[in-house]
Amino acid sequence: MPLRIIYFQINEAFAAQTLACAKDLNLDINKLNVDGGAIALGHPLGASGSRITGHLVYELRRRKAKLGIGSACIGGGQGIAVMVEIL
Fold it and tell me: What's the family (predicted)?
């Protein structure tokens, strides 16, 4: 059974990068960075992962949703992601 991911948080290092990820992954942009990304909310040095994860958990609880994914790019073409499930 496929997972039903409700919200996505992508580290918005650059607006074009976020749009390219949304297009390549066929994400619903209405479920992506629903309250803004790093451009709107900030890109705290060394704490972007914490901001993304915290905001994802907040949104899932606020909207009574169950599953979400947060991701961030890392220099050198790497990346990291976390899936959060509210029980």
Answer: Belongs to the thiolase-like superfamily. Thiolase family.
pLDDT, tens digit (0-9, with 9 covering 90-100), for 1-21:
667 888 899 888 788 888 998
Q: Tokens standing for 38? A: 């790093």
Q: Are 3 and 63 in contact (CB under 8 A)?
A: no
The number of domains in the chain is 1
What pTM was estimated for this model as a whole? 0.78
Nearest to 4 by CA among 57, 87, 65, 71: 65
Q: Which H or E element spans position 49?
A: helix 48-62
Q: Which domain holds residue 25?
A: 7-85
